[in-house]
Amino acid sequence: MRINCKACGHKARISSRNELSPTFIDLYCQCLDVNCGHTFVMSLTYSRTLRPSAGAIDQLLFDRLSQLPASQQRQLFDQLSTN
Ligand SMILES: [Zn+2]
């Protein structure tokens, strides 16, 4: 991740991080320009999912199938095996 100093625009580095929650992290940053030396905190937040995790899709499918009556489950698996 590229961070720039908000004071001078020079490249900055993340010196440490504080994970306040699994979706919100404070990043402690330090400007790499020796003539500036600005230190500041940036926040990193989770925004949204673009494509669900493959594991989540499998779980969703399993949950959906397990809610179906046994006869309907068998019918679906029979259809899968004939294709
Ligand atoms: Zn700076």
Automatic annotation (TrEMBL):
Occurrences of domain Zinc finger Ogr/Delta-type (ranges): 4-50
Name of the protein described by the UniProt record: Ogr/Delta-like zinc finger
Species in which this protein is naturally found: Pseudomonas flexibilis
